[in-house]
Amino acid sequence: MNSNLLQTPIDYLKGVGPNRADLLRKELGIHTYQDLINLFPNRYIDRTRYYKIRELQENISEVQVIGRIVHLKTVQQKRGKRLVATFVDDTGEMELVWFRGHKWIRESIKINVPYVIFGRCNRIGHLFSMPHPEMELLADHERSLRTAMQPVYPSTEKLGNKGITNRVINKLMQQLFTETGGKFTETLSQPLLSELSLISKPVALFNIHFPKSQELLAKAQYRLKFEELFYIQLQLLIKNQIRKQKIKGYVFDQVGGQFLRFYNELLPFPLTGAQKKVIREIRNDLGSGAQMNRLLQGDVGSGKTIVALMSMLLAIDNGFQACIMAPTEILATQHYNGIKELVKKLGVNIQLLTGSTKTSIRNEIHEQLQNGELHILVGTHAILEDKVKFHNLGLAVIDEQHRFGVAQRAKLWHKNTTPPHVLVMTATPIPRTLAMSLYGDLDISVIDELPPGRKPVKTVHRYDSNRLKVFRFLKDEIAKGRQVYIVYPLIQESQKMDYKDLMDGYTSIEREFPKPDYQVSIVHGQMKPADKDYEMDRFVRGETQIMVATTVIEVGVNVPNASVMIIESAERFGLSQLHQLRGRVGRGAEQSYCVLMTGHKLSNDSKTRLETMVRTNDGFEIAEVDLKLRGPGDIMGTQQSGVLHLKIADIVKDNQILKAARYYAQQLLKHDPALATEENGVIRYTYGQLSKYKNIWNYIS
């Protein structure tokens, strides 16, 4: 059909008009016929069955009955009155009741004419009663497009109050199909339809709104979900393809002295198979002539920093500088100290730049950066400042990338005439399905193996009533020379309350672990940076055995001797946060423990989170559970979640369809990168059309 018809403003659809059009635009974002067609039902009510009156039971929620109204009466009540109709079929009688709208209902009802009624039943005495039923003349019901599987559309309170009910939306949808003749342009190629046994676009759209059967509804849903995810994957893959063709990168073709000496002589432990695989992938990128844009996922402690360092040494061997940017000063300092220790025998010049770097040191860093003396710069957002200029930045590493906005990451691109290679790292495992949708335009590497000698952290859940036993366990561990973290939640909205929790906890810990036998550090967000650093430092040096803290220690503290993590009020933490906190222990060769402390009152979601933590240490499995509990938008934060405004697909429930969509999009581009063949003309055209809808497609950073 003429696609221009679908761009007709919704105001012009019969039954809409300016007022309804305004409401549909504001409440549901429906501006055109196309938008209305793409308003897909949330669920369906099965109206395949017609009940006889004698079959009605009290526990049946919604029923439909065919019968006739034989009598109408108005009954006085304490307040106002009600209209009561006697409704009969060949097995018995029941009552229909209205408490408002009597006048127009009485005028519109036809006595002794067959109706189909639909609604919820109550038993009053020996009779069943249906308040405010949906009613339709049997003759209209049989002629109507409305089908046995009745769609229920998304709505808002405002639409309901203004009379735009589900039934009204259904009638508008019927009108739209009448005006368009149900002739919609196919959007997938014939080979794809045949290979996947997909129904056509017109049949799918008809059956999503007016399903003829459960089977056809399932086929319509699959077809439309596949199409939506297929075009998203195509967009991501084409963007990656174009970027690799257009954006040239520096070629690092030398594997020189710094890299080889570090690999052969200075590695603190042998690389795992996963680390070797990722370094090979990065080396291929760096030698390809295209700009690298790679996401490196790896659980806490999996050895991402070593991989990043070796990539930076490749840059240095090829005459370039490198930088690593972290979201917090603590984490940046941690990287700086760790990398400095690893490269001290190589003569690599490395500096740290954060918000609290003194002006004199800052000036020195700026000078060394510009004359090329400085090889690696480690820092926070301070690296992004305009006055920070590199001699020739070849590789930028971004740690915990989800903490940086798109604009901030883009600033790094302009630190050299040709954009530097970019390696983004995250210790927050992103579920594979989500990674495919959000980062499908990035190349993804995964380190899914822990270094040798690391023992999985043992995790247990304990109630507050077991606290004394937990304290005894801590004393035993401290007697073995181990150290302990005790973490309290800090939730922004209630800082005062949380601060009180922390201070109460600190007081009780000091009482239970008195000086001089025990030393306790405390760290929280309201402390001055110098005080925080002093307390952290005491713990790192082993002067204190217990660190009482808020989640400021979530990232950035590496104390191999700390073997116990106690998380207080664990039910108040999200899964990924619990997993990150647990990753603070288990960094040495000794067995480590994580104890989740809670009260007895727990929601179902809290129970699921705690059970998951106790059951597994696998960050990806934890991320999948988190995705099911919280949904994609919450996990990625608002700045990233635009991609997930899907019309019909759900990346959690439909992950198999997503995988299929990505596979077929990859195969398509492999065999026809420009979508130039005649059979792919329809995909090329549809892709071009969809790319114009910025609100749907302009989601890629």
UniProtKB/TrEMBL annotation:
Superkingdom, taxonomy of origin: Bacteria
Domain Helicase ATP-binding: 285-447
Pfam families, per the entry: DEAD, Helicase_C, RecG_dom3_C, RecG_wedge
EC number(s) on file: 5.6.2.4
GO term, biological process aspect, one: DNA repair
Domain Helicase C-terminal: 466-633
Keywords, ordered alphabetically: ATP-binding, DNA damage, DNA recombination, DNA repair, DNA-binding, Helicase, Hydrolase, Isomerase, Nucleotide-binding
Record's catalysed reaction(s): ATP + H2O = ADP + phosphate + H(+); Couples ATP hydrolysis with the unwinding of duplex DNA by translocating in the 3'-5' direction
GO molecular function: 3'-5' DNA helicase activity; ATP binding; DNA binding; hydrolase activity
Signal peptide (UniProt feature, chain positions): none
Family: Belongs to the helicase family. RecG subfamily.
Function: Plays a critical role in recombination and DNA repair. Helps process Holliday junction intermediates to mature products by catalyzing branch migration. Has replication fork regression activity, unwinds stalled or blocked replication forks to make a HJ that can be resolved. Has a DNA unwinding activity characteristic of a DNA helicase with 3'-5' polarity.
PANTHER family: ATP-DEPENDENT DNA HELICASE HOMOLOG RECG, CHLOROPLASTIC
Protein name according to UniProt: ATP-dependent DNA helicase RecG
Organism whose genome encodes this protein: Sinomicrobium weinanense
